[in-house]
Amino acid sequence: MRDARQLHPADSYQRLLQEYDLREIDAEDGRSLFHRKYMARLGWVIGTIQRELTPGSTVLEVGCSQANASLLLAEQGYRCIGLDIRPEALTYALSKHTDGSFCPVAGSAESLPFASKQFDGIVVGELLEHCANPAAIVRRCVELLKPCGIAVFTTPNGQYIASKEPLYEPCRGADSSLVRREFGPAGDDHLFAFALPSFKQMLEAADLDIIYSGYVGSVVYSDRYFPPKRIMSPAWLDRLSRWVNHLPGLNRLLSYTLVAVARKP
User: Fold this and answer.
1) CATH number at 4-263
2) Which of 105, 159, 192, 210: disulfide with 168, CB 3.0–4.6 Å?
3) What is the pTM of this model?
């Protein structure tokens, strides 16, 4: 996969994606908040797919944006499809592609243009918080999975101490104001955030069997909340963050991201 510094974006949206890559996956500062936070999440997704599915499996990444998960998995022998509502994002992702099977598809997460029981795995990363009706998207993903296929989810933790988004209410439904705002391109347009119990409840209501759920990334990556990070190696920062992610009671307040992997019966 090409480094973002090698790319020549064709428009303003692709330049925005390049800026995200340059502070996340391709950041020069290995201790920066955005880099460590992003790599913890991406590493968990990649590692989960590797544990649960063998190379050659077909994996769909819904709302792929830069498609970093798909591109990295493709390099390791997985057959990856990246879906995004923005054709510019898919063109950008293709400009990064170097090895393996990666197919970009333009389409909406609300009307996934695929046949049922087609995929061994589906990745839904940092998308549900942008959707007016996330439960409907989860149900559609389940339809697309083969029996015993797995779904991998990540979403911001709504109980994190600095979270400002309202918590997701499972019974609220998708009102018109949320529908007008959904699927925005920036990180500050979240409609709501999940707490782990409601997150798990939504997945179980879609008839998924949860294999694991928990937290990834924590305040130890923050200059504001944990200044000693500047004298620690990135590897030790990651170890300390994983320890925080498993602290009973405190993990829900100090962790950035909710994660879950679930299997279709």
Assistant:
1) 3.40.50.150
2) 192
3) 0.94
